[in-house]
TrEMBL record:
Protein name: DNA-directed DNA/RNA polymerase mu
EC number per UniProt: 2.7.7.7
Top-rank EC class of the record's enzyme: transferase
Taxonomic path: Eukaryota, Metazoa, Chordata, Craniata, Vertebrata
Species the sequence originates in: Oncorhynchus mykiss (Rainbow trout)
Keywords: Magnesium, Metal-binding, Nucleotidyltransferase, Nucleus, Transferase
Length: 373
């Protein structure tokens, strides 16, 4: 596929995914720092700078080699003044004073800590900070704070779920959920999505799509899977959201970041014995109680939306953002987790695979492992 020159600047990320077949992640130092600045902007509700830092981090990630001099970033798209200033500091002094200022900021530290709890968003974190709270202990000790069910689970399993999930653990969970789903419906289809589908070694959770080969047959399946997991004694927490997909509202419906598929946000109990290949591993005897808690997202789209759901839930968030922006600005199309709509032709473009969607967008197929923007 050919790419119009105009896209190259604005949509550096998609462009680089398509052409830079060998992405080497050597710029981690720089991109981690930029992600922190993005997070800080997010806490300050500065949407523009937040997106700017995220986009800059994404561009640096896509470079085929590490940045060793300022010249290497000259002419790169999406790098703003603030980003360039930070890069300059790092290249000259080996550290960035602007970043260190953010890192040592009391408010930033507190909000980062609070939002690391499952169920706590920036708004709640801000509220707690304003009340003078600074640590998780202080929050738990404060009698006037009402935690919701999700936050209570977040605190209860904080140690476990803030620990990275390994590929082996993701694989073990896949087997458990697949076996459960097949026990209920032998032809059900379970697919790994999220970071692990992109080939990541570690994740903060494990994401799956669950569907049936026949449209409509997926109804009720997810609830039965949840019930079965509960019966097996491995369901530690479940937040279930029913489907709110209303296709009759299309195409007037606005395209959104969140989708309307039936889904559940879970915390599951994973037994150590269920993991393959950890037999020879040394364990900290103090830590070992034989199991850990893991965050799992399970989404159940109807099969006719499956390709869009798979593309949307595979991520990364930045890749999805860039792809949607590309569709909108360069193709006059709206893309979300449910559908692709051509605004000029005023019609929906059907797809049964991710390949179909990239083809509709006039893009070469981008493999999941190339979507780590
Ligand atoms: P990790 O932090 O889990 O290792 O990375 P990830 O797997 O890429 O992140 P994620 O937070 O699990 O999200 C995976 C993808 O799912 C991401 O591209 C965003 C997408 N996603 C939706 N809807 C929703 C939603 O309602 N909540 C969340 N958390 N993610 C969603 O499309
Ligand atoms: Mn994930
Ligand atoms: Mn997730």
């Amino acid at each position: 596929g050919h790419f119009p020159a105009i896209c190259v600047c604005v949509f550096a990320r998609v462009y680089m995914c398509v052409f830079n077949r060998e992405i080497i992640l050597e710029n981690n130092l720089n991109t981690d720092v930029l992600e922190e600045l993005a997070e800080n902007s997010e806490f300050n509700e500065s949407k523009g700078p937040c997106l700017a830092f995220r986009r800059a981090a994404s561009v640096l990630k896509s470079l085929p080699s590490a940045v060793h001099c300022l010249g290497a970033i000259q002419g790169l798209p999406c790098l703003g003044e603030h980003t360039k200033a930070v890069m300059e500091e790092i290249l000259i002094f080996g550290r960035s004073f602007k970043v260190e200022e953010v890192q040592s900021d009391e408010r930033y530290q507190a909000l980062k800590l609070f939002t690391s709890v499952f169920g706590v968003g920036p708004k709640t974190a801000e509220k707690w900070y304003r009340r003078g709270l600074r640590s998780l202990k202080e929050i738990l000790a404060e009698p006037n704070i009402q935690l919701n069910r999700m936050q209570r689970a977040g605190f209860l399993y904080y140690r476990d779920i803030s620990k990275a999930v390994s590929k082996a653990e993701a694989k073990a969970l896949r087997s458990i959920i697949e076996e459960t789903a097949h026990w209920i419906a032998p032809d059900s289809i379970l697919a790994l999505t999220g970071g692990f589908r992109r080939g990541k070694e570690y994740g903060h959770d494990v994401d799956f799509l669950l569907t049936m080969p026949e449209m409509g047959k997926e109804k009720g399946l997810l609830v039965r899977v949840i019930d079965r997991l509960r019966d097996q004694g491995i369901l530690l927490y479940c937040e279930h959201q029913g489907s709110t997909v209303d296709m009759s509202k299309l195409p007037s419906r606005r395209f959104e970041a969140m989708d309307h598929f039936e889904k559940c946000f879970l915390i599951l109990r994973l037994e150590e014995g269920q993991m393959e290949g950890d037999g020879g591993l040394q364990k900290d005897p103090g830590e070992s109680r034989g199991w850990r808690a893991v965050r799992v997202d399970l989404v159940a789209p109807p099969v006719d939306h499956y390709a869009f759901a798979l593309l949307g839930w595979t991520g990364s968030r930045q890749f999805e953002r860039d792809l949607r922006r590309f569709a909108r600005k360069e193709r006059g199309m709206s893309l979300d987790n449910h559908a692709l709509y051509d605004k000029t032709k005023k019609l929906f473009l059907p797809a049964t695979s991710e390949e179909d969607i990239f083809a509709h967008l006039g893009l070469e197929y981008v493999e999941p492992w190339q979507r780590n923007a």
